[in-house]
Amino acid sequence: MTIAELLNTMRDRIRAAEISDSPMMEAQWIMEMITGLHRPELLAHSENEVSAEHAARALELTARYVAGEPLPYLLGDWHFYGNRFLVTPAVLIPRPETERLVELAINWLQDHTQAKVVLDIGTGSGCIAITLLKSRKLQLAQVTACDLSFEALMQAQQNGLLNGVQDRLQLVQSDLSTSFSEPIDIVCANLPYIPSARLPMLDVSRHEPRLALDGGSDGFDLYRKLFSDLSGKMAAESLILCEIDLTHETIGADLAQQAFPQAEISVIRDYDGLPRVLSIAHHPTL
Description:
The chain has eleven helices and nine strands. The chain folds into two domains: 3-68, Helicase, Ruva Protein, domain 3 (Orthogonal Bundle); 81-282, Rossmann fold (3-Layer(aba) Sandwich), CATH 3.40.50.150. The protein is elongated and about 70 Å long. It is of the alpha/beta class. Helix 7 links the parallel strand 3 (118-121) and strand 4 (143-147). Helix 1 (3-17) packs parallel to helix 4.
């Protein structure tokens, strides 16, 4: 079987499953991972024969993808905000919705160059913390990434090494922000926010870690705990950014206002126009 024939077979099986808008691209990504050849090389030599071992592996991964396994876990890595991250079932797959939170954090940090204590709470793969450290718009000396899961922290450590920021990435095993007491300048938090009852109905619950998904009865349990702990810890000029469920616009704003009555509260929409980021801004004059 040639490269072209194998790619066409994989494409057709992915297309038939109706799980992708770009079945050929995903077939090529699987082949890249298996063969070590980049897409231009695969396409330039599409008439070459594929080894029986590579063909069997490619069809096996295609079958697992069609059966429901997330493609990033099968590939072992994924891209977020232009950077590459290793991913395993120990962490959530980085998603484009979270890039909105990162963009807001970068904008704020550009305007607050005095900020020193930057926390990524519930870091998972480390994608938020590492993206901030790699941003060309910033010159951060350090970002602290914390997670309750030791496995997640090990994944974040590997991604820090992969992206060349390991010397500026501080990893802390912590239950939310309980390990921190000094005035905090900015918190980025992508905590579990899916209501428990809804979780079994979602495909994401089949493969990604429940610890990183389940937000309790209304999906906001961990944010309640975080707000309570952060009260009194934030610097006079500071920001808390939380990724939330699209159903949390009202409850998020109300609970944030109760926890931080002097703060400016807003809910910011993602690139699809859905409520996605809860912003809690502290100003010295408020």
